[in-house]
Amino acid sequence: MPHLQFEINQRLENKTKEKFANAIREAFAEVMGTGTDHIAISIREFDKYNLTIGRVNPEHDICLMNLDIREGRTIEKRRELALRYMNIVKNNFNVDPQNQYVTFTQHPGEDFHLLEKYLADWEADEDPLA
């Protein structure tokens, strides 16, 4: 059950957040070869100067992404997902990719719990809720 966290230093409309979350889920499922029902997304909005990246003027729009995922994805898959997410952030929030930062944290499947069960370790083309 990935928990995909996005922090941005601007205020967003609900319709924009809904469109964004749908694009994020679909990209994750496509790149990582999984379904979408177990994907958790957090969008946190901050005022200017509450988020910084050393190379970016804090007056500019910034997006920080912390992606908690199950272990097992290759660096190529993680890189593909990071670049796709940067593009989705650019298209939905108008944040320059130079002003974005992505961090992956990997966990064994047993670290992810739903009411029904905890998840198994990741396998290609799986349905984690089956």
Describe what you observe in this structure:
With 130 residues, the chain is α/β, with parallel strands linked by helices. It has a single domain (3-111), classed as Macrophage Migration Inhibitory Factor (2-Layer Sandwich), CATH 3.30.429.10. The chain contains 2 helices and 4 strands. It has helices spanning 14-32, 75-93, and strands spanning 3-8, 40-45, 63-70, 100-107. It has a 4-stranded mixed sheet, with helices on one face. Helix 1 (14-32) packs antiparallel against helix 2 (75-93). The two termini are 13 Å apart. The relative contact order is 0.23. The mean pLDDT is 92.
Please render the helix and strand layout as text.
Blueprint: E1 3-8, H1 14-32, E2 40-45, E3 63-70, H2 75-93, E4 100-107
Parallel strand pairs: 1-2, 3-4
Antiparallel strand pairs: 1-3
Helix pairs in contact: 1-2
Classified by CATH, the class is: Alpha Beta
User: From N to C, what is the helix and strand string?
Assistant: EHEEHE
Q: Output the CATH topology.
A: Macrophage Migration Inhibitory Factor
> Which regions contain 5 or more consecutive residues with pLDDT less than 50?
none
Helix content: 25-40%
Q: Summarize model confidence as the mean pLDDT.
A: 92
Count the beta strands.
Answer: 4
Our Rg estimate from Cα atoms comes to 15 Å
Main sheet summary:
4 strands, mixed
CATH architecture, by name, is 2-Layer Sandwich
Total helix count? 2
Shape: elongated
Distance between the termini: 13 Å
